[in-house]
Amino acid sequence: MRFRTPFARYWLSGFLADFGDGVRLAAFPLLAAGFTRSPTAVAAVTAVQGLPWLVLGAGLGVLADRTDRRRLMVIVDVARAAIIAGLAAAILARSAGLVLIYLTAFTTGLGSALRDTAAGACVPRLAGPADLDRANARMIAGQVVGNELAGPAAGGWLFGLATVLPFAVNAGTLGIAVLLLLTLPGVFRPISQPAPQAPGTSLAALRQEFSEGLGWLRRHSSVRDVTIAVGVIAVMDAAWFAVLVLYVIHILNQKPGMYGLLVAIGAVGGIAVGGLGPPITRRLGPWRSLLIAGLVMAASQAVLGLTANVIIAAAMLAASSAACVLFDMTAVTMRQRQVPDNLLGRITSLYRTALRGSEALGALGGGLVAAVVGIRATMLIGATPIAATVILLSWHHRGTATGRNAGGGLSP
């Protein structure tokens, strides 16, 4: 491995932020379920966190390409810690309610959108081109451990001890993440600053820079098609995940605390692929890896909708997490190797807008489907669209080489 020395501190900072987010994200639906039994209202907590991507996400990459990416992450994490601490104070004062939960979810979602856009463009500054797949595997494995394993498990457990604890822990981990970011060297500044603009033309300059990124994406079919595919997959995946807590309680007949544990068990699959993913993509090539990952996601969702057995459900959650990590790692490395650094923030924001915005729409749709036709139907509905999308993606790029350096050079 040829990672530059600061990569470990950068990884730890990202892990702590993700762990805190996992704690909060597990606690949010449990907190909302204490105020309402409506599946739509509970699912809306997840959806609201993705709304900033729909409203502002596509333009956030302009900020990431114009500013020091480390400074942007520090400002965002400090603001998120303060907002979450405010929610914790309201819980202690017994003044929290659905409106405050939704407001907190939206503002922290906006912060996450800014941070994720900046973070997605930072890894190439800390890892050599030949090691990008390994670096991304480590970053994504850390995200899975934080967001899906340790974080949710801790969030469910802490929520059982005291409602306020998950949010206090989230604020604390963000504070430590900021301190680690401040120890990193100044390698995250823009490679080339935009020319100074007169006040009357600054908005036009921002639009021009955004259009430059959008135009690049339109012209490059591999990154463009994966971006479209991830939007479809995210809608279908978020629909069932938004009502997973209700699935655990009403279909699997488990206590609420089992929700966090099942998510954590499922994440083991993602962690395993975090270590095995680079050899898989190097052997199979990117397009086959994306196809296999999508088909596994589709199959696992179908089985979840058909079973009421908690052991089978845990196995399917592990398979789904593994497939998601393989897909994400392959797509991220492809993007980082093909996109010029001065455009990487903008292309990343467009990709993540398709991902996170679709997740918001899917979560809302999942709540509505669960309310109208039941929770089982919500788990089943996404299997066919996901399978069809990855098959079409693979077929369209069937003539693309899948060996060394194919599809963005996933081999060093």
Summarize this structure as a short list of keywords or feature phrases:
mainly alpha; Growth Hormone, Chain: A; 16 helices; 80% helix; 0% strand; disordered C terminus
Structure description:
Helices cover 80% and strands 0% of the residues. With 412 residues, the protein is mainly α. It has a single domain (7-186, 217-396), classed as Growth Hormone, Chain: A (Up-down Bundle), CATH 1.20.1250. Helix 2 (39-66) runs antiparallel to helix 14 (341-373) and helix 3 (69-92) packs antiparallel against helix 4 (98-120). The longest helix is centred in the C-terminal third of the chain and has 33 residues, at 341-373. It is globular. Mean pLDDT is 84; it is low at 193-201 and 402-412.
Low-confidence segments, ≥5 residues, pLDDT <50? 193-201, 402-412
Approximate shape: globular
In terms of DSSP E residues, the strand content is under 5%
Under CATH, the homologous superfamily reads MFS general substrate transporter like domains
Write the layout of secondary structure elements.
Layout: H1 7-33, H2 39-66, H3 69-92, H4 98-120, H5 123-126, H6 132-161, H7 165-181, H8 202-219, H9 221-241, H10 244-251, H11 257-284, H12 286-306, H13 310-338, H14 341-373, H15 375-380, H16 383-396
Helix pairs in contact: 1-2, 1-4, 1-6, 1-7, 2-4, 2-14, 3-4, 3-7, 4-14, 6-11, 6-13, 8-14, 9-14, 9-16, 11-12, 11-13, 12-13, 12-16
